């Protein structure tokens, strides 16, 4: 099967790089987003997301005339659905974007087309939800058009490389659909392409992120135990990881982002009687901002009225993505505790948190602070030296939630320095 045209629905962190990569590999791509602001800004050459290399890639794709951006789909050989699947307040999956995208394809669907769902979805979404919607076209899934689930597995910050190099899972609703998916992604994927069925592919995606969530929860729980038993968790992890079969991840203020903090809930929602470990891990990670605040108050005394410079808001280092960020939860808790919080996020100096002051520089945030709180180990934040803070907030207490700074260096400069999960060096 060969493809000349493609329609990608959803131009976020996955859809936009995917559409652009297909376009730079010679496919005629229409990128679709229902948000007209995104459509306009892309058409004006402005990329609304920060991901290393993405701007250059998008500009090359648009410049080649192989990528056009519009707000509605059109006829194509293949369609990729890459819209978000957020979760609702009660932690159930919100499939409304997937449903709308599938409905938007219906008028354009033709015999022989391929439809791929990439959005992370609860098990059986492709078969039980997407197939029936597409069949409203009068065509039969499998018999008349191909349908497959193919999860994205790329790491934000390394999306462009991983999109091409990572192994790709393609789960068709039948073997012809899997083969069609392989022919499509084979255009640029250099990693292994593994074929399976749609529900297995959905489950694989959720298992990968759930596995990581559980492992981070273990690290976070260890950090709480270390604080209790006067052990330095960072030292203990380094030693434990010398064991050839142990690889403990890093504790921190919690798990954020739109993937790992969300996907495990899809299992919990779908099978609460079974997914008990998964549920507990979620609760541990979601409780970590609270642990940061109680550890900080153990180190610095009452937080009421204290001026705190909170450094970093993104969900992880060196990205501009603030979705589900535990750093934001920490700031909210501090505001609720009566602290005067000044926030500096170098990748997004506009983001406002009610009750906190948004700052555009380190100097603005740290000036006369009682506490300097490192929440995200962005390279430019871990590069901060004690001398810089010395000039701004000489007697500040340093609290490092991510082991981003060198304890000895700060101690030597005369600062009181504490680290999350370090019960030994208080
Ligand atoms: N984190 C820790 N400790 C660690 C590692 C991470 O606290 O040792 C935190 C991070 O700070 C962040 C969160 O976990 O808040 C998640 O970060 P991450 O780098 O582990 O993962 P994501 O969410 O950026 O990307 C994940 C990846 N999945 C896996 O590694 C199994 C990526 O490959 C997926 O494509 C992506 O989810 C997705 O879109 O599903």
> What is the C-alpha radius of gyration, as a whole number of Å?
24 Å
CATH class of the largest domain: Alpha Beta
Percentage of helical residues? 25-40%
Largest sheet: 8 strands, mixed
Q: Looking across the biggest beta sheet, what order are the strands in?
A: 3-2-1-4-5-6-7-8
Mean pLDDT: 96
> Can you count the helices?
17
Whole-number count of domains: 3
Ions and ligands? ligand SAJ
Describe this structure as you would to a colleague:
Helices cover 40% and strands 14% of the residues. The chain has 426 residues and is α/β, with parallel strands linked by helices. The chain has three domains: 5-191, NAD(P)-binding Rossmann-like Domain (Rossmann fold); 207-286, N-(1-d-carboxylethyl)-l-norvaline Dehydrogenase, domain 2 (Orthogonal Bundle), CATH 1.10.1040; 288-419, NAD(P)-binding Rossmann-like Domain (Rossmann fold, 3-Layer(aba) Sandwich), CATH 3.40.50. Helix 1 (15-24) crosses helix 3 and helix 10 (263-270) crosses helix 11. The model has no long low-confidence stretch (mean pLDDT 96).
């Amino acid at each position: 099967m060969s493809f000349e045209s493609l329609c990608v629905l959803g131009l976020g962190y996955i859809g936009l790089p995917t559409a652009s990569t297909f376009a730079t590999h010679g496919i005629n791509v229409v990128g679709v987003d229902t948000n007209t602001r995104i459509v306009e800004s892309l058409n004006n050459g402005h990329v609304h997301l920060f991901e290393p290399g993405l701007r250059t890639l998008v500009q090359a794709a648009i410049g080649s005339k192989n990528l056009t951006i519009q707000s509605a789909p059109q006829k194509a050989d293949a369609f990729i659905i890459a819209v978000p699947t957020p979760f609702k307040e009660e932690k159930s999956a919100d499939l409304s974007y997937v449903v709308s995208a599938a409905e938007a394809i219906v008028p354009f669907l033709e015999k022989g087309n391929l439809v791929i769902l990439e959005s992370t979805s609860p098990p059986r979404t492709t078969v039980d939800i997407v197939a029936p919607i597409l069949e409203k076209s009068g065509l039969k899934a499998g018999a008349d058009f191909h349908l497959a689930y193919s999860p994205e597995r790329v790491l934000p910050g390394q999306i462009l490389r991983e999109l091409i190099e990572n192994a790709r899972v393609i789960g068709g609703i039948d073997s012809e659909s899997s083969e069609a998916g392989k022919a499509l992604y084979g255009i640029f994927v250099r990693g292994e392409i593994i074929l399976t069925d749609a529900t297995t592919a959905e489950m694989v995606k959720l298992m990968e992120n759930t596995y990581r969530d559980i492992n981070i929860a273990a690290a976070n729980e260890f950090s709480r135990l270390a604080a209790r038993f006067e052990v330095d968790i960072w030292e203990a992890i380094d030693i434990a990881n010398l064991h050839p079969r142990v690889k403990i991840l890093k504790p921190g203020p919690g798990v954020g982002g739109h993937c790992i903090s969300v996907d495990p809930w899809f299992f919990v929602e779908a099978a609460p009687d079974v997914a008990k470990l998964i549920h507990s891990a979620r609760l541990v990670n979601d409780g970590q901002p609270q642990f940061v605040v109680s550890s900080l108050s153990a180190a610095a005394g009452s937080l009421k009225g204290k001026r705190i410079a909170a450094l970093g808001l993104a969900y992880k280092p060196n990205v501009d993505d603030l979705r589900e960020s535990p750093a934001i939860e920490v700031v909210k808790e501090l505001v609720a505790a009566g602290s005067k919080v000044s926030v500096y996020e170098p990748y997004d100096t506009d983001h406002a948190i009610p009750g906190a002051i948004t700052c555009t520089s380190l100097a603005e945030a740290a000036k006369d602070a009682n506490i300097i709180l490192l929440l995200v180990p962005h390279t430019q934040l871990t590069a901060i030296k004690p001398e810089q803070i010395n000039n701004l907030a000489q007697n500040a207490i340093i609290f490092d939630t991510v082991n981003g700074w060198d304890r000895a260096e700060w101690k030597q400069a005369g600062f009181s320095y504490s680290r999350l999960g370090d019960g030994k060096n208080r």
